[in-house]
Description:
Blueprint: H1 2-7, H2 22-36, H3 40-53, H4 67-78, H5 82-101, H6 137-147
Helix pairs in contact: 2-3, 2-5, 3-5, 4-5
Amino acid sequence: MIRDQRARGEDPRPGKKRGTTFKDIALDTLAVKDAALKNEKSRWQWHPSLEVQAGSLHDTPIDEVSIDDVVTLLSPMWTNTPELADRLRMRVAAVIDHARARGLYTGDNPAEWHGRLQHLLPARRRLTRGHNTAHHTRRCRPSWRLCGLPVGRG
């Protein structure tokens, strides 16, 4: 029993309960991801998103992270920088999944999109910048010749 409490990050002495926080699990998740990710840029992107952008969740006990906490975290950036917000959502979901695997979180993941956040946040637009305009091949042929590329029909 005492070992179980210590494994969950709790103090086994009566009245000295210290639950494992989101930050504790986030740092643990980052350690696992660092070992798994081969790309330095990917590692670099994971750390600031969980250490800085998810800062409002740091002091929250992991078993008390709710969907309202996730919506509060994501709402300010969801419409302005949807790609960043969605990546942060996926990383928070990975932290919650890590806690579930360790037995520190029960229930549905509050950062999951389908069936949860899709009803509370607006859907992301697929193209935020629009399409690039097409160029006529007649305009490109002179530069193709300069590059030594074959100029055919089309």
